[in-house]
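pasting for ref
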Amino acid sequence: MKQIVRLTKIFRFEMAHALSGYNGLCKHIHGHSYQLEVTVSGQPDNTPGHSEEGMVVDFAALKAIVQQEIITPLDHALLLKENVALPATANDNELFARTVRVPWQPTCENMVIDFARRIMSRLPENVALSSLKLYETATSYAEWYTSDNISC
């Protein structure tokens, strides 16, 4: 009988963003302490003597993927839509050295979609991304589920 197990690893990072064209306070540069919950699923590899015997995926391998794809490029960065103009002086200002441009509005919803794409592209063949939960504040989050995004 096939036994599927879900594993979740939690990550935290700090990031600023601004929502261009938004009619509210979030149009200004502001930051959040994000929490990202990454849940993957798969069947444990019970091959005797295998270094990862009994595991779906090593938590260290999952951590490495999320670290490389999300945490390292975005922690303590400013995320802006690519068409947002900064003052010319920003190019020479160390305060803007970690500005990351994206082709979409940097909302929590769009971030979780982008994060899902990045993580899925790096997972081992036998491991599936099950869900992501991205907390923007302690009480506000966006969720992404594979089951909601499978083409019929």
